[in-house]
Structure formats: C-alpha cells, structure tokens
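JOB MANIFEST
job_type = single_chain_structure
chain_count = 1
residues = 437
[input]
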Amino acid sequence: MAITGRVPLLLLLGVLPVLAWPAPVTVAGWVLLVVAACGVDIAIAVPPALLVVERELPASVRLTEAATSRLRLGNPSGRVARVRVRDAWAPSAGAGSDRPPLRVAPGESAGQSTLLRPSRRGDLAAAAVTVRSFGPLGLAARQASLAVPGRLRVLPEFRSRTHLPYRLARLRELDGQASVYVRGQGTEFDSLREYAAGDDVRSIDWRASARSVRTMVRTWRPERDRQVLLVLDTSRWAAGRIGGDGASPDQLRLDAGIEACLLLGALGEASGDRMSLLVLDRTVRQRLTGSGRKGSVLAGFADSLSLAEPVLAETDWSLAAAEVGRLCRQRSLVVLVTGLDPALFAEGLGTVLPGLAHDHQVVIAHVTDPAEATRREDLGSVPAVYQAAASWRLALGTRALAERVRRLGVEVVAADPDRLAPAVCDAYLALKAAGRL
C-alpha cells in the first residue's frame, strides 16, 4: 500500500471543520473519514497481480549507445487501471527516471519505454517491475513487484572502428600488388612473368624458362586462409588503470586490448584469414575458433569480449602455450595482447616465448601509459623527481626487454591506448606484405 500527497492535504483541510466545531470528536471523525476514503480507493484499485506485464528488449547494444526497454501492460480485469510503473535496473544501466501515469481501459493494454545508457560492458539483468495501481480518487494505491526477466548484453565500444576503412584500403592495395619480391613463409604462387631487373634470382622458374625463349620468374602473393590467434591477457596486468592525465581518460589496460582484438579481428576476416580468440589468465575464460563464415568474426569477438573482466592473479603462461599448440596445428600468427614487465618476464612469458617464436610468428601488443610521459617531465618537487626517476627506469628496462624479445624474431608493438589497435593492424599488414605469414 502507498499513499499520495493528496492524503496530507486532505488532512490539512480538516482544520476548517475543527475551527468551526473545536472538539476531539471532530478531529477523530475527520481522520476516520480520510482513512475510509483511502480504504475505498484501495478497494476499487485494480490489483497489480492481475495485470499482464511483458518486456521487449534488444539482445545487445554497444557501450555508450542507447537502448530502449519497453513494457507492455495488459488489463484483463473489468475496471480501469490507473498505474505508475518503475522498470528497475542496475545503476550501470543508466536507466531513465521518467514514469508517466498510465490509464489502461478494461481489456486493453498500454506501453512504457525506459531509455538505457549502459556505462560498463557485460550482461545487465533487469530487476523486478514495480507497479502502483491507484484508485479513482488518487489517494492510495496498491503496490507490488512483478518478476519480468530481461537481459541486455553490452558489447565493447569499438571506438577504433574509425581506423578500419584506411586499413581495408591498404589490404586491397596489398592484394592488388603484381608480386611480392621476397618469398617467405606464408606466400603462395600467383603467376609467371618475364624477368625484370631487380627481381630475386631465386624466383626464376628454370623449367618455364626452358620452355620459353625468355627468362620467367614466379610471382607470389600473401597467402590467404592463414590461422591468426589473438591471446588476450586478463590477469593483474589487464586490471591496471592508465591515462587520466587530462589528455586521455582513465581506463583499464584490458579495454585497450579489447579494442586491438576487435579491430584486428575485423581486418583479418576481410583478408580471408581464420581468426581465433583466446582469453585467459590463470584459467581459460573464453575460447573462440574461427568458423570461416563471413561476418561472424567481429560479432563473435564482440560477444565474447563483452564478458572479459580482469583477474587479480598472474597469467599461467604454460597453460597459454599449451592452448596455442592445441589451437594452432601449423605455423600461425599469434598475437599476445599483454604487457612487457621486466620484473615478471623471466618467470612468466619468458619461459614459453622462445618455443612460441620457434613454431609461430609472434607479435606482442603492449599498451603504454600516456601519463608516464607526463610524469617523466615533471621535476617540480622532490617526490616528483623520484617518480620521474622510477618512470625512466621502468621505461628503459621495458625498452631493453623489447630489444631482447625482437632478437627472438618476435614483433613488439608498443603504443598508447588510442594507437595500439591501429598499430597492431599495421604490423599485421607489414607481415603480410613481407610474406612472413
């Protein structure tokens, strides 16, 4: 039961009869009259349990975009239902607070929409729908919470998709090249043509040349249908916050890694490669193998990565290497979206990286903190000098570690959150152009 603001106003009106007939019985009589009016109002109100409430909700929405939750209230009773409806959601759903009064005639239905603006990834579950059914006097109402289930999956924002058209143009340019002059692993035969100055003599086809009066060379193109595996680290590294220096917003390292996976997944699908995704820390959180269906990669990646959350534990790199071996039976491109930490490398990634680099082409995508550059320039106080020295020491250690890793044949891509995704795609295109896939 709930009362409206009309009840205290009605009680205040009782001052007039009390002033006219100042007696306790007048006060008691007026109060009883108001209570009786409220009782009659509640009795006439349609019980909320009799209403039929249905929900219409989209399956998913991208982060920062809006979605609408629609409720349809049916009134099977024989009385007019005067109701207010509260569609309850978690605070991260950003649900609007507009709850207009609804008047539903007998045998009819009415709708109410709630605008949702989610502020975090993942699954959002709708809470109970609270219905207040008022009587014709508008003094009191019956109230009940009805279970109307609903789930909205909030996909990653994918703000790096603005970089995709340019990379797709570069991919088409790469596919349209007449030849790839340096033959390497991951190239396939394209055609024969006459030898020209500057061609690699190792590409001369002696049998074709013997059948012709001219020297013929083989041309090569980047091989399609290659296996590309993206490994997203969701360990303690992913939980670190970066940015927040005024130039860029504060965000998780994991969010930058998700952007890199989405952009590379879309580009790799357009190039005809088989894209797979592995999300892990101490255990495997998500495993998505390439299906080969056009248009399925980006949707599958976005759906899986929407549930990715960082875990305050170190990555089990032995498990990661075993999963890579199980998913990649032949030489593949393995993109490790993780951090290069000199303090943890020797006992972590460093234990399996030489083996991975021997069997596959490995790329490490390392997100840098743009706030560190600002911190290294701040020498205004003694604490700031110590922070700058620590930041420089970490930067030099990471740079030296990256050079060691490159000597294993591993490509290292280090960039800030806004540039990491396009930088990883540029490295992917460069490997294709060089015939290293």
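[summary]
The longest strand covers residues 67-74.
Residues 160 and 419 are 9 Å apart (CA to CA).
exit_status = 0
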